[in-house]
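Hi there,

I know you've been waiting on this one. I reran it after we fixed the sequence typo, so this is the corrected version. Both the input and the resulting structure follow.
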Amino acid sequence: MSVRRYHFTGPYHDPYGAAFCLYKPGEINWRHRIIAGVSWNGQTQEAFFFNPDGLTIPLRVNPWEMPAFMRKHGIRREFSTIVGEGPFAMDKQRRLSLTASQLAEWVTYWFTDESYPYSNDAEVWDGWVANDLEEERATSEQSHAFGRDQTDLDTFVDECVAKREEWLTEEYRRRCREDARICAWLKGEPHPLISGN
């Protein structure tokens, strides 16, 4: 038996570079790029990572780091379950043919639950923008005080905040389009055709 070598550090590797990651409280989190959990077979060292919608994420696993990773980030476990749909999931025929003892080798660890907010939701994004614009207002006021800008304070701050809001609006559109394309890919659907991308 040969020993498999892993040429990456950490419990998983994102071979497509799609920026899949764990949920980060207080930060911007895009629904289809978040690792909501993993179905793990400790005997075969096979894993199926999935997002909050149950779509399987194509990540490679480093089995030597998985147990500690799952203990650290797991908020609940389900025994004898395998979660995941889409082209990167376990083949349906294979899943249906598993015996009870084979299914018992699987444990699903959840890293998120239904209460976690995502930036795709307009209400969550609006809250993020409101906080960001307050910071922009404070920073602009400080910048005006230390700068040599000849415009009055209110005009300067309003212009800075308006530019930031415009940038955030475009950033939201861009990231939502990208997240929709990732969602379609994880479902095995053609990605939505969007002009300019």
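Quick highlight: The chain is about 40% helix and 15% strand.

Best,
R. S.
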